[in-house]
Specification:
alpha+beta, single chain, three-stranded antiparallel sheet, globular
């Protein structure tokens, strides 16, 4: 699923911590960042200024129920 534009990134990352399983950011270039990882969150945060990259990527949840936790941030 795609991220909405202009989301509160801090709240998004807080909600990811509430998810029961892994949440991945998949870039168009084939990169996979596990957003439950602190290091991956740091990398993800560093690219948030590059809206084109963020908007072209996808969010994938390992547990289908986690999409409900992130629903406010996803298209």
């Amino acid at each position: 699923m795609k991220l909405k534009e202009k989301i509160d990134m801090i709240q998004f990352l807080r909600n990811i911590q509430k998810c029961s399983s892994d949440v991945w950011f998949l870039s168009d270039e084939g990169d996979r960042l596990n957003l439950k990882s602190t290091l991956s969150q740091y990398i993800f945060s560093s690219i948030t200024n590059q809206q084109k990259m963020i908007q072209s990527g996808n969010i994938e949840c390992a547990d289908e129920g986690d999409y409900q936790v992130l629903a406010a941030f996803l298209k």
